[in-house]
Amino acid sequence: MTSTVVSNGSTHLHGPDVANVTMTPATVEKENICKWVLYDEIGNSRVRIWDLSILIPNVLFLLFLAFRFNRARMKLRATSSPIFYAFYVLVVVNAVVSVIRCIVSMTVNAAVFAGDLTDKILWVVVRFFLLSTEMSVLVFGLAFGHLDSNTSIRRVLLVTSFISLAYSSSQGALEIVVPDENFHIVHKDYDIFAHGGMLFWFVSSIVFAVVYTVIFILPWTRMRERLALPSKKSFYWYALFLALMNFTQAAGSGLIYHGEVDGLCAVDVTTYIYFTIFTPLVYWTFLAGFFSVSQPSILFSYKSQVDDVVEDDNVSLPHQLSCSSLKTDSDYIYQNNSLYDSTQFDAANVNPLYIHSLQSPDSFTGIDDNVGMGTINSSPP
Questions:
Q1: Which tens digit of pLDDT belongs to each residue from 283-294?
Q2: What is the pTM for the complete model shown?
Q3: What are the respective helix, strand and coil percentages of the chain, to the nearest 5?
Q4: What parts of the sequence cross the membrane (predicted)?
């Protein structure tokens, strides 16, 4: 067994016998609080403060999903579009996996190799699902937002999962093969999860930050004329949030890589926000509006009803209500929630039947019997 004396007179012990030595407070170097919070346990329970602080918000969100499950199930069954189902499944899986990781991490002994390995693998698994969700949200919005079919969604999920798997596998390999010494706990003789090391974290954070920044500024560039960009403002606030978070992670990991331990506080805060806030953010940004409408199936089935009758020579659609501007399910996720936005719809020129169809079934009283769901007035109102 060997020891290393540090500047304050304490010693760091190394070697195979380190586990058999009882370290006293006088022999342990005073840790930065932002590093201490990552591994400190509650008494002798093996329950780390860090895992518990992440577990509580995830459990609360999972309970929220469970409480609203019946309502969500009915809404999902009311629409024929698979995009909402895909988003909902991703959100639920993220919440479940995050809770499982926290519970398992609090029960295994990280000081044992098997326990430390299990903890790191679980971190990588959670990151895989979160990154898959991140990429799916972007791809659906920028490239496949209007390809609302089972085939297109399966392809998107397959591609994003493959890319996320490559990223997560690289991160996991670096964690196991080349653990970051900045995250080594001397007096416990194990390494806490370092997200693939500071260099890997810095480079990947820069890449993600640039991607989200570009997405945020796209509406102010000439690309808006070539791409069918989402018009929903919350989508761009979502992109800005992730851009700022990744820039902060890049700054923090870069400081740690150059020996500045104060960078730990920056990465701790952003890591906590990401693993507790990201999944609820996806839900409230892209799904909450859908689950709150009265009868989405009527709204989302209107386009197919128009397609069925548009071949009739006697049918005349209002100018502002062309087939290209009608709302689809994917439109509702990425476009403005307001159905009467002045840039897309003029309520005075929309067929009254369409306006009534946006309401709940109970509101269909007072409509003339000779007007059915499958017909449209032959002349604009």
A1: 998 888 888 765
A2: 0.72
A3: 65, 5, 30
A4: 49-70, 82-115, 121-144, 156-178, 198-223, 235-257, 272-293
Between helices 263-286 and 83-107, what is the axis angle to 10°? 140
**Domain range for 134:** 31-292
Residue 97 identity (one-letter amino acid): V
Distance CA 188, CA 184 (A): 9
From the number of C-beta atoms within 10 Å of its C-beta (0-12, 13-18, 19+), residue 42 rates as: exposed
CB neighbours of residue 348 within 10 Å: 9
Q: Could you read off the pLDDT of 264-287 as tens digits, one per residue?
A: 999 999 999 999 999 999 999 888
Q: Which residues of the chain have pLDDT under 50?
A: 1-29, 296-327, 338-381
96-108 burial, b at 16+ Cβ within 10 Å, e below that, comes to: ebbbebbeebbeb
- Do 51 and 165 lie in one domain? The reply is yes
CB under 8 Å to 317, separation ≥6 — which residues?
A: 306, 310, 323, 376, 380
List strand residue ranges (DSSP E) for 117-187, in order: 184-185
CA distance 73 to 291: 10
Q: Are β-strands 190-191 and 184-185 bridged in parallel, bridged antiparallel, or unpaired?
A: antiparallel
Q: Tell me which residue has tokens 């069954």.
A: 77
